[in-house]
Amino acid sequence: MSAAKLTRKLHRWGAILTALPVLVVVVSGAFLQLKKHADWIQPPTQHGTRGGPAVNFATVLARAQGVPEAAVQTWDDIDRLDVRPDQGVIKIRCRNRYEIQIDARTGAILHQAERRSDVIESLHDGSFFGDRFKLWVFLPSGLILAGLWATGLYLFVLPHFARRKRKLSSKP
Predict the structure, then answer these.
(1) What percent of the chain has pLDDT over 70?
(2) Domain-located, residue 103
(3) In a domain, 172, yes or no
(4) What local confidence, expressed as pLDDT, does residue 50 receive?
(5) Which pTM was predicted?
(6) At a CB cut-off of 8 Å and minimum separation 6, what does 66 contact?
(7) Which of 51, 115, 116, 159 could form an SS bridge with 99, CB 3.0 to 4.6 Å?
(8) What pLDDT is stored for residue 52 in this prediction?
(9) Left (φ > 0), alpha (ψ -120 to 50) or beta: where does 129 sit?
(10) Is residue 89 part of a domain?
(11) What is the pLDDT of residues 13-55, one digit of tens each?
(12) What CATH number is associated with residue 56?
């Protein structure tokens, strides 16, 4: 079997094996590119009172508990706090993918909405399906995709080399 035939066969089977995982990565990647532009994906960051945070952690927890959609009872229900002093806002990211933004100085709620970007990111890297799936499907798909790039490049360049070789051999 020639190198060109083997490369075409590897390229074809690689594309078939990775079609679904690569589609998930491409579509989720497109959504992630839009996350700062589409409020549906990620709530826009609001601006509060500047001057550094003045609210304490008890106030942060109380504000989060006051939003029924966030379903916050204790600190265990909060995934992380994102403090942005330059914008005067504290983002409270809840475990149920809900986000509350409060003014860092006054504690007033500035915005609240569901945050979908984290789910999209977990789809993108394969962790949504679990660690085993991520390591045994998404990782090999990425490696095969690198092989598809190499074989595709080879198949693209091969005719150019063949034409050049014919031209050189036909010259007297």
Answers:
(1) 99
(2) yes
(3) no
(4) 87
(5) 0.76
(6) 109
(7) 115
(8) 85
(9) alpha
(10) yes
(11) 999 999 999 999 999 999 999 999 999 999 999 999 988 899 9
(12) 3.10.450
- The type of residue at 96 is N
Using the Cα atoms of residue 168, residue 169, residue 171 and residue 172 in order, give the sign of their dihedral: positive
Res. 149: pLDDT tops 70? yes
Q: Note down the domain range covering 106.
A: 43-114
Q: Quick one: 171 exposed, middle or buried, by C-beta within 10 A (0-12, 13-18, 19+)?
A: exposed
Task: Answer whether 145's CB lies under 8 Å from 17's CB.
Answer: no
Together in a domain, 105 and 120: no
Per-residue pLDDT reduced to its tens digit, 76-110:
999 999 999 999 999 999 999 999 999 999 999 99
- HEC per residue, the chain: CCHHHHHHHHHHHHHHHHHHHHHHHHHHHHHHHCCCCCCCCCCCCCCCCCCCCCCCHHHHHHHHHCCHHHCCCCHHHEEEEEEECCCCEEEEEECCCEEEEEECCCCCEEEEEECCHHHHHHHHHCHHHCHHHHHHHHHHHHHHHHHHHHHHHHHHHHHHHHHHHHHHHHCC
Tokens 């990647």 belong to 29
Q: Do residue 31 and residue 3 come from a single domain?
A: yes
> How many angstroms separate the CA atoms of 51 and 59, rounded?
18
User: Which amino acid belongs to residue 60?
Assistant: V
